[in-house]
Each structure stands twice: as C-alpha cells, then as structure tokens.
TrEMBL record:
GO-annotated biological processes: cobalamin biosynthetic process
Transmembrane segments: 51-76, 82-100, 159-176, 207-227
Biochemical pathway: Cofactor biosynthesis; adenosylcobalamin biosynthesis
CC per GO annotation: plasma membrane
Organism domain of life: Bacteria
Membrane topology: Multi-pass membrane protein
Organism: Geomonas limicola
One annotated GO molecular function: threonine-phosphate decarboxylase activity
InterPro entries listed in its UniProt record: Cobalamin_biosynth_CobD/CbiB
Protein name as annotated: Cobalamin biosynthesis protein CobD
Family membership: Belongs to the CobD/CbiB family.
Purpose of the protein: Converts cobyric acid to cobinamide by the addition of aminopropanol on the F carboxylic group.
Length: 318
C-alpha cells in the first residue's frame, strides 16, 4: 500500500488528539509479547547467543512487516476505505507525541504544585536513573532530556518511516525499537544476545536522529527559541552521548533552550558522569520543559508540512 497522505495526516491527528490507544488492541504490545515468547526458545535451541539474537531480530522484524502488510492487503480487498482506516490506525499506534507529552507533564504538574516527592516518582517512570534524591533542576533536566531524546525515536523516526514506506515500515521500525528496549542492554544477560538488536536500532535511528536535530533547529525560532544556538550546540555537542544518535536531538534542544544537559546521574547506587551537552546560559526550570515540548510538536509539524509539500510538488510535476 503506498503512503497515502490521508493515512499520514490521519495517524498524526489521531495521536495528537487521542494519544496512545491503550483500550484498543495494540500492535506494539503484541510485538513485545512475541519477543518474550521467542527469547527463551531461541536461547535453548541456538548454541551461539549472538546468532540467537540475530535470529530474534530477523524473525521479529520480518513477521511484523509481513503481518502488517497482510492486514493492509486484506483490508484493501474488502474496500479501499477499509485500507485507509486500518492504515491510519497502524500509523497512529506507531507515533508517541501525545503520550510522551502526557507522561512527562506529570513531572511538570507535580513541580508546579511544589510536590518534589511526586515529581521524583513521576520522573522515575520515564528515565532509568535514580530519582529519589533529585532536586528540582535535576528533575527538570531528566524530563527535558527524555522529551528531547524521544522526539527522535518516538515521534520523528516512526513518522519518517511512515512517510517513507507506509504503516508496515513504521511498525517494522517500532519492532526494532521494542527489541532494543527489551534486549539491547550491555549487561551479562544481553551483551551478546541483544547485540544485533542494539546495533540495528542504532542504524535505524541514524538518519532520523540527525533529521530531528535539524527540525529542532528550524522549529526553534517558531517556538520563540534560538535556532542559531541550536545549530551551534548540535554541531559542537551532538556526539557528547553514549548513543551515536541521541545526542543530536538533545544538543539541538539544549542549544535552543540555552540550558546544559548531561552530567552526573546515579544508577544502581553508583554515580555515572556523562559528558555535558550545551551551555548553562539559563537555569533548568519549568520554562525549559515547556520549551522542549513546543520543539517536539513543531518539529513533527515541520516534517509533515515538508513531506506534504514534496508530495504536492511531485504530483504537479507528474
């Protein structure tokens, strides 16, 4: 099924208005259960952990793409309108802008009430670091970093693959993303088994992460922020991250907001010093959080507008 503009616009609008459809059958949940089903069986039956992990990646992504394509074909054989509805639904569940905003906003709401304990608890649901002793600036930093990073892999990347190859490719990307979140850890259990999933996730996010940074640079002036500084910091600090990709949206956001991200975090009782991103021209306050949310939505809008413009120009040229 070609990437119909109705499918893309419908998916984006459904996500913006309704958020994550948790009350409905959710393909991402099904993908997670499929991974959990395959993992112990592959570990038992494949001698090499790395080979088992490679097979997990191939089977999960292949089945996701094939099942999604089959659903679209069957819907189209019913009526073209049914294919549009199914396509919009599958595109909708691949996007996470509203969900990201809702979950991170719980942190901001608690801070606005002056309830630090509640803010720490809310932050603990969206970050991996320990949050029990964090003060307000560090809580805000965690929320800003989460929104900036996930604008890449939760908003722009799935939208990029949706416009590139339709719902089947968008959900194949989400399968890669889910694999990385479930098995892509650098610990004893998953170092070899999750190697392929982690590396492929890096590859799948390579272009979208850099596109996200560029979109944030372009979005910054529209949000009352500094596009010039976003560009400068992204070029300077985009690689100041353990991930080969996450640093680009974080650096663009830090530059646009005029804040410093990165630094010390506590994991399992140990302090981990991470490279800093950006300059501390402004304090990490709720203003920074609201600014990064505006950047997220505006970046998504810019991608939709740019793609729609290219499609329209191609139609005129054709």
């Amino acid at each position: 099924m070609p990437t119909d503009i109705t499918v893309v616009l419908g998916a984006v609008l459904l996500d913006l208005v309704l958020g994550d459809p948790r009350a409905l059958p959710h393909p991402i949940v099904a993908i997670g259960r499929f991974i959990s089903f395959l993992e112990p069986r592959l570990r038992r039956n494949v001698a090499s952990e790395r080979a088992a992990g490679c097979l997990l990646l191939l089977v999960t992504v292949g089945v996701t793409y094939s099942v999604t394509s089959l659903m679209l074909v069957l819907a189209y054989l019913t009526t073209p309108g049914a294919a549009l509805v199914v396509g919009m639904y599958l595109g909708w569940v691949s996007l996470a802008a509203r969900s990201l905003h809702q979950e991170s906003a719980k942190v901001a709401y608690a801070l606005e009430r002056g309830d630090l304990p509640a803010a720490r608890v809310a932050l603990s649901y969206i970050v991996g670091r320990e949050t029990a002793d964090l003060e307000e600036p560090e809580i805000v930093r965690g929320a800003v970093e989460t929104v900036a990073e996930n604008t890449g892999d939760g908003v722009v990347a799935p939208l990029f693959y949706l416009v590139l190859g339709g719902p089947a490719l968008a959900l194949a990307y989400k399968a890669v993303n889910t694999l990385d979140s479930m098995v892509g850890y650098k610990n004893e259990r998953y170092l070899e088994f999750g190697w392929a999933s982690a590396r492929f996730d890096d590859l799948a996010n390579y272009l979208p992460a850099r596109l996200t940074g560029l979109l944030m640079v372009l979005a910054a002036p529209l949000c009352g922020l500094s596009g010039k500084n976003a560009w400068r910091i992204m070029r300077r600090d985009g690689r100041n991250h353990s991930s080969p990709n996450s640093g680009f949206p974080e650096a663009a956001a830090a530059g646009a907001l005029g804040v410093q991200l990165g630094g010390a975090n506590r994991y399992f009782g140990k302090i981990v010093e991470k490279p800093t991103i950006g300059d501390a021209s402004k304090s990490l306050s709720l203003e920074a959080y609201h600014g990064v949310v505006r950047l997220m939505y505006t970046s998504e809008l810019l991608l939709v507008v740019a793609w729609s413009g290219v499609r329209y120009a191609a139609k005129l040229a054709g």
